[in-house]
Amino acid sequence: MSGVLTTVALLKQTFDKYAGADGDKNQMSKKELATMLKAELPGCSEVDEFLKMLDQDGDGSLSFEEFVTFVATFAVLVGSA
């Protein structure tokens, strides 16, 4: 499998690991986002800011598409630091 396909599969696997605990496996709630950030990015406590910035449709949760936007934005920020 190519590096890009492996990365996409890993993104989906990570999203699926945290989304759905609150009922909807296609959305990551604020609580699920907080759990993911705590586990995957220790020291990151700005859940409200992340959710507000990424929740493009304003439904209070993140779809997989919005999650991918988060990861891409994070990658750009880390890559330019």
UniProtKB/TrEMBL annotation:
Stretches assigned to the EF-hand domain: 42-77
Signal peptide: none
Domain of life, source organism: Eukaryota
UniProt-listed CDD domains: S-100 (cd00213)
Coiled-coil regions listed: none
Gene3D superfamilies named among the record's database cross-references: EF-hand
Keyword Transport: no
Pfam family, one: S_100
Molecular-function GO term, any one: transition metal ion binding
Keywords linked to the UniProt accession: Calcium, Metal-binding, Repeat
Protein name (database record): Protein S100
Lineage: Eukaryota, Metazoa, Chordata, Craniata, Vertebrata
